[in-house]
């Protein structure tokens, strides 16, 4: 039985991935920032540079999902530092401990975000080889990926997934998006023309599973559905799926900027992101269209 060590195991993707991997016969261990008596859970302290040695030694694969929530708080100067440090320092620590205790690790699979391409709205379809953006979101992703790619330098197969908006009935972005629509006060944001690259929770978890089981998989992949949907279309399809109507005009950009500050950029901008590279690996989507995904989520 192979062992998969997950960081960020209590997050939306981490919880679903834990169940999926166990159902496929893997042993799953979790790194936690709090001391816990839960089975298969190990302690780590990023600030102090500590990870329980056994957690690293036993791992055949590491899936690195940990990082402070991008949309959880306003982007103050302090929060921006937390968002970067939680990703960069945690990855640096994993690299150091793997090099020390488990240089024969079979694979390091890490999260990143489509924010890599920059918070912008355009007709361009971004692919993995495109140049990174220059704004704060892009900076986070560039620094994060730089540290993850260090695993290649010690000959450990490395896979990075630039993930879009993950849709699930169990929490995350979709519950926040659908709540006002269920209450009859939903509306498109800004001009509604910004794209919302998304992916169903089952598909993104299957990508991580595929990254473990396919030794030919390496490099960086966009983890998004193949369908391109604007915010206006997303809002309308969500309302239809919930048997609701959109009666209100679009929420003006200035309102969101007043409420959220610089964080509003993640709601008001968005471009199309290509899924072609992962498709060429013969990965099969279970939920390739938003209509199908919403039918499952709202059933």
Automatic annotation (TrEMBL):
Domain NAD-dependent epimerase/dehydratase, chain residue ranges per copy: 4-222
The record's annotation in Pfam families points to:
DUF1731, Epimerase
Q: Which ranges carry the DUF1731 domain?
A: 251-297
Q: Which SUPFAM superfamilies match?
A: NAD(P)-binding Rossmann-fold domains
Q: Which InterPro entries is this protein grouped with?
A: DUF1731 (IPR013549), Epimerase_deHydtase (IPR001509), NAD(P)-bd_dom_sf (IPR036291), SDR39U1 (IPR010099)
> What family is this protein classified in?
Belongs to the NAD(P)-dependent epimerase/dehydratase family. SDR39U1 subfamily.
Per its record, how is this protein called by name? TIGR01777 family oxidoreductase
Provide the species name.
Answer: Lutibacter holmesii
């Amino acid at each position: 039985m192979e062992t998969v060590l997950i960081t960020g195991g209590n997050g939306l993707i981490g919880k679903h991935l834990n169940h999926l991997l166990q159902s496929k016969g893997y042993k799953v261990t979790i790194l936690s920032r709090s001391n816990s008596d839960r089975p298969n859970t190990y302690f780590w302290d990023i600030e102090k540079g500590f990870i329980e040695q056994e957690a690293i030694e036993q791992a055949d694969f590491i899936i690195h999902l940990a990082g402070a929530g991008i949309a959880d708080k306003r982007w103050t100067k302090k929060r921006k530092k937390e968002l970067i440090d939680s990703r960069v320092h945690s990855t640096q620590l994993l690299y150091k401990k793997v090099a020390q205790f488990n240089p024969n690790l079979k694979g390091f699979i890490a999260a990143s975000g489509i924010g890599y391409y920059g918070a912008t709205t355009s007709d361009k379809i971004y692919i993995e080889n495109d140049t990174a953006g220059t704004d704060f979101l892009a900076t986070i992703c560039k620094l994060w990926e730089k540290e993850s790619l260090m695993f290649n330098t010690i000959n450990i197969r490395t896979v990075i997934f630039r993930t879009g908006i993950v849709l699930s009935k169990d929490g995350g972005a979709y519950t926040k998006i659908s709540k006002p629509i269920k209450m009859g006060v939903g509306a498109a944001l800004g001009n509604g023309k910004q794209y919302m690259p998304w992916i169903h929770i089952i598909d993104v978890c299957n990508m991580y599973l595929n990254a473990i089981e396919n030794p030919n998989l390496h490099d960086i992949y966009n983890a998004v559905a193949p369908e391109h949907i604007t915010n206006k279309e997303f809002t309308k399809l969500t309302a239809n799926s919930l048997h609701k109507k959109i009666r209100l005009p679009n929420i003006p950009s200035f309102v969101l900027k007043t409420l959220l500050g610089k964080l509003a950029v993640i709601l008001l901008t968005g471009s199309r992101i290509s899924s072609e590279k992962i498709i060429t690996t013969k990965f099969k989507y279970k939920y390739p269209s938003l209509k199908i995904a919403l039918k499952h989520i709202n059933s």
